[in-house]
Amino acid sequence: MPNINDSYFDGAYKELWRTIIPDVLTVKEVEFMIPYFNLKSGQKVLDLMCGYGRHSIGLAKKGIEVTAVDNLDAYINEINNIAAKEHLPVKAIKTDIINYQPADKYELAICMGNSFNFFDEADALKLLTTISSCLQAGGYLLINSWSIAEIAYKSFSSSNSSQVGDVQFQNELKFLLHPTRIETESTMTTPDGNSEIKNGIDYIYSLNEMEKMMNAAGLSLKEVYSIPGRKKFTLGEPRAYLVAEKK
After folding, report:
1. Predicted confidence band of residue 14 (pLDDT cuts 50, 70, 90)
2. What angle do CA 34, 38, 42 make, to 5 degrees?
3. Checking CA distances to 36, which of 149, 193, 232, 243 falls within 20 to 30 Å?
4. Domain count, the chain
5. pLDDT over 70 for what percent of the chain?
């Protein structure tokens, strides 16, 4: 049994996300982005709330120049280590996402893995405005979410559990209003009783609310998919991919 510390639980938490977002899904999402947005080697993509860089690394392997941005050291350090080892065109930046001001212009900005829903309405609008300002004319934004209202209202459950290796995850969820959100308390526990608690909030926006925020930021919602590029979103499907274009 290894020593129990933050890095041990972080490893288990990362593996949990691999069950929620399997590697094959990331591959398919990257394979969608390149032809759909007509990305070519040397063009630039901004990956906001990049996590461990699953899309940043995948795009960079195709010659796309990626700026990967997140607020956690562990994520940025891992991306920089991989990029240096594999000589990939990725620049990873640790910063406060909401106050980040990109220095470049991009053909595409992405915000994947439900991370857009971490922000309340004021911050979400500020983030969209920042994205719009750094896109090339006719550039695109891709958002992946499973917490839009059209999904969350149907799929909400007040508790769930899972097992990753010898770590037990127990999640307790509350659906709250003003603003509409789901607050989650996740308890990770090992067989000998060591535990850690993580708290999270997903703000719930309808597609109509998302479109209004995009319009206010100078973006136009073009399409919503459940399977990117292949199947348009219908009510209650488990994931949504929102494609917006700079006006």
Report:
1. low
2. 80
3. 149
4. 2
5. 92
